[in-house]
Design brief:
It is a multi-pass membrane protein. The chain is mainly alpha-helical. It is built from 19 helices and no strands. The relative contact order is 0.16.
Length: 404
């Protein structure tokens, strides 16, 4: 795989950071669209006459398809202009959100969510490698943080924003609002993103080499699966949890999730500050936080004050997941970054799909409380794996072995 060395000057781009911000807004838009049903699960299930567990398919189905499309897009992109691909995918995202807002039943809604999965895998995989093509080399690290910051912000803010709009205007208007935002982001791309013809190629063989021979990357992908699946096993059902455990009034759910989102943004910047120097320590702290969350919810979360406090801890812990894990991936495969990013996106979305699907099965068969115990078990496994990764790192005297 060849990596382009680019700078804003190479593209004749007068405002490279405006282009970087546009790409960050693209990742924010698509991940927010993916996460939107989490805060609206109960009203959507009631309107479309389906169970809470089946409604969880709105999260798991697009995530699973995104996992499939992320590496396929990187391989199939070839010489296609990345600007055209991003704009086309953003156009499809507008259509998917409009279709969701108009959905008369669950089949229609799931069809729209399939389209979201296609957009998710494509946009995230392409966006991950664009920083080096938009800014000078010294700024690549910060530009990458801005682009992936869209993912982090969407992961923690997408749910509360959707819930707030849903509480005030109804869940259909939440999707309509995302259609409008996606359209505005598309217009911004058309205005500020330069032509981006293919500057790198990836083959199936290179994917297989990284996946089969890079143990640091393998460990990171395993940790990604455990952390994300455990989180979404519980978080997919955060609204019914808040309505049943401490018995919050529905009108408070949006505000509580917004507080969660603010804590998540703080966690993102905190993890980003520490992860570059102490990556394993950051990931271990995140795993510990996600393990404590279900335990604290079951013990302290039966009062409004306790549940609100635990929700802040949850947001702080999960907010650092994207930047912490991506930092590990960049160190594990510095010379195959686009491949590592595509694999990371794929496994991340498999984790979302498996977590939300498994959570739905447990909730329907047992209870919300039982589901929390299962989520905690996955977080415990993640904590053990992060500890093992720390031992492996120390055995190499802290020296990372780059993989081509």
């Amino acid at each position: 795989m060849s990596t382009s060395s680019s700078a804003a000057a190479d593209n004749g781009l007068p405002h490279p950071w405006l282009a970087v911000s546009a790409v960050g807004l693209a990742t924010f838009s698509v991940v927010t669209t993916e996460m939107l049903p989490v805060g609206l699960l109960t009203p959507i299930a009631e309107t479309l006459d389906t169970s809470t567990g089946n409604a969880g398919l709105m999260i798991s189905l697009p995530a699973l398809l995104a996992a499939l499309f992320a590496p396929l897009v990187v391989i199939a992109a070839g010489g296609m202009d990345r600007r055209r691909m991003l704009c086309g995918l953003l156009g499809l995202l507008v259509i998917a959100n409009i279709a969701s807002a108009l959905a008369p039943g669950m089949v229609w809604m799931l069809a729209a969510r399939i389209l979201v999965g296609f957009c998710m895998g494509g946009i995230w995989a392409i966006a991950g490698g664009l920083a080096a093509r938009l800014v000078p080399r010294p700024d690549i690290g910060w530009a990458t943080s801005v682009i992936f910051g869209g993912v982090a912000a969407a992961s923690v803010l997408g749910v509360p924003l959707g819930a707030l709009i849903g509480d005030f205007a109804g869940w259909r208007w939440a999707f309509a609002g995302m259609a409008l935002l996606s359209g505005l982001v598309l217009a911004l791309h058309l205005a500020v993103i330069p032509a981006l013809p293919s500057a790198s190629t990836a083959t199936l063989r290179q994917f297989a080499q990284q996946l089969g021979g890079n143990r640091l990357l393998q460990a990171g992908l395993g940790l990604t699966l455990l952390l994300v699946a455990g989180h979404f096993m519980a978080f997919t059902f955060v609204r019914p949890l808040l309505l049943s455990l401490p018995e919050f009034d529905a009108q408070w759910v949006g505000a509580l999730l917004l507080a969660y989102g603010v804590a998540g943004i703080a966690g993102n910047f905190l993890a980003g500050t520490i992860a570059a120097r102490r990556t394993v320590l950051t990931l271990t702290a995140i795993a510990l936080g996600l393990l404590l969350t279900p335990v604290l919810l079951l013990s302290l979360g039966r009062t409004p004050v306790g549940a609100g406090a635990v929700l802040l801890v949850w947001g702080l812990a999960y907010g650092g997941v994207s930047v912490g894990l991506m930092t590990w991936m960049m160190k594990a495969a510095p010379r195959a970054l686009e491949i590592a990013t595509a694999l990371y996106v794929s496994v991340f979305n498999v984790g979302i799909a498996l977590g939300s699907w498994a959570g739905g099965q447990v909730v329907d068969a047992f209870s919300l409380e039982t589901n929390l115990w299962w989520a905690g078990g996955l977080a415990a496994l993640a904590l053990l794996l992060s500890a093992a990764m720390g031992l492996a790192e120390r055995s190499q005297s802290g020296r990372w072995q780059p993989h081509r």
